[in-house]
Design goal:
Order of helices and strands: HEHEHEHEEHEHEHEHEEHEEH
Number of domains: 2
CATH class of the largest domain: Alpha Beta
CATH topology of the largest domain: Rossmann fold
Radius of gyration: 26 Å
Oligomer: single chain
Structural class: alpha/beta
CATH architecture of the largest domain: 3-Layer(aba) Sandwich
Helix content: 40-55%
Shape: globular
CATH superfamily of the largest domain: Response regulator
Strand order of the largest sheet: 2-1-3-4-5-11
Largest sheet: 6 strands, parallel
Length: 334
């Protein structure tokens, strides 16, 4: 007996071939998607991740995004401006699809690297310009600086307060002006001293500058650089921390700190990259989004004039509600 044979009608052959092709392409697409390289995120930082300041915030935000999304992350700390572009390119060549240049001074390096790696998304802390694959993000801690300026004036007995920062970048200038504006809301005659040390990370120089302000009469200091709190401890004056809760650095002198949680921003950017919905933009997550807050007072609020404290809390509530906008002033006073 001859084996049975199947012969498709001629008019069905084309349809069958088309169906098989569709099935093949669909399967191939699923395989490709299943084996697509997962997103990896990298960050370069200008200082050590243990500084309890700017670099700690970047590192903590990176780790928060990794935990939230289950993605691989990596970082390079203590990266100089001269090495920034090289390190960014290295991460891009190693397949990191999202790279954060976490410094006010890494913008140009990120711009140059982004130009040669069009399929990699770069985010620079305050970039001078945007491109199709380069976005930027700012640190709106000037909103918190306004509030701590109010607290500084409310805690000062001498009528003079200080502020020490790194370099006159736009974010730092915004912080300084907001701090002064907040202080003058409490005491219109308050004297606000400021010093830029010319470096993003030089604790000895920062401490020296802060001590100089104390010797000129400042009895409350805004710590916009590592070393200010050391000076406050040594001189027994009050300080206001930045970026993280820095009370542990001076338990008896750090009244509170302006904290910055970068985790939500990094997570949102990474989600957008993964979903291919990311678009270049300037992102700013401040008080209204819960990213900028005031840390616990650790019982030291008793050293602040109650009337000033109440005004500060009212201002914070107004900022959250959108009823008060902290002035954004980036002019250089020097």
């Amino acid at each position: 007996m001859k084996p049975l044979q199947f012969r498709a009608p001629r008019r069905s052959v084309g349809r069958l071939v088309g169906l098989l092709a569709t099935v093949f392409l669909t399967f191939a697409g699923l395989v490709t998607a299943a084996h697509a390289d997962p997103l990896k995120i990298a960050m370069i930082l200008p200082g050590p991740i243990t500084d309890n300041d700017w670099n700690s915030v970047g590192y903590n935000g990176l780790q928060a995004a990794s935990k939230a999304l289950g993605v691989e992350v990596s970082y390079a700390e203590n990266v100089s401006d001269a090495d920034a572009e090289r390190v960014l390119r290295d991460f891009a060549q190693r397949g990191y699809g999202l790279i954060f240049a976490h410094s006010f001074s890494f913008g140009d390096a990120a711009l140059n690297a982004a130009d040669d790696f069009p399929n990699t998304v770069f985010m620079a802390g305050t970039a001078s310009k945007l491109t199709s694959n380069l976005g930027t993000y700012s640190n709106p801690d000037y909103q918190g600086a306004y509030l701590t300026g109010m607290l500084a004036a409310g805690a000062s007995k001498s009528g003079a307060i200080g502020w020490v920062g790194g370099m006159p970048a736009p974010n730092m200038l915004a912080n300084l002006h907001a701090y002064e504006a907040g202080a003058k809301e409490i005491n219109s005659k308050v004297k606000v001293m400021h010093t830029f040390i010319g470096s993003w990370y030089d604790p000895p120089k920062t401490k020296e500058a802060a001590i100089a302000q104390v010797e000129q009469g400042a009895d409350v200091l805004s710590a916009q650089g590592v070393g200010v709190i050391d000076a406050a401890v040594a001189k027994r004056v009050y300080a206001l921390g930045a970026m993280t809760d820095q009370n542990h650095l001076g338990p008896n002198v750090v009244l509170t700190s302006v904290t910055w949680d970068l985790g939500p921003l990094i997570t949102d950017v990474a989600k957008a990259v993964m979903l291919k919905t990311w678009k270049s933009a300037n992102l700013s997550y401040g008080i209204s989004k819960g990213s900028v807050q005031l840390a616990d007072f650790h019982g030291l609020d008793k050293n602040i004039d109650p009337a000033a404290m109440k005004k500060m809390l009212d201002r914070m509530a107004a900022i959250k509600a959108g009823d008060f906008v902290v002035p954004l002033d980036t002019t250089n006073p020097d």
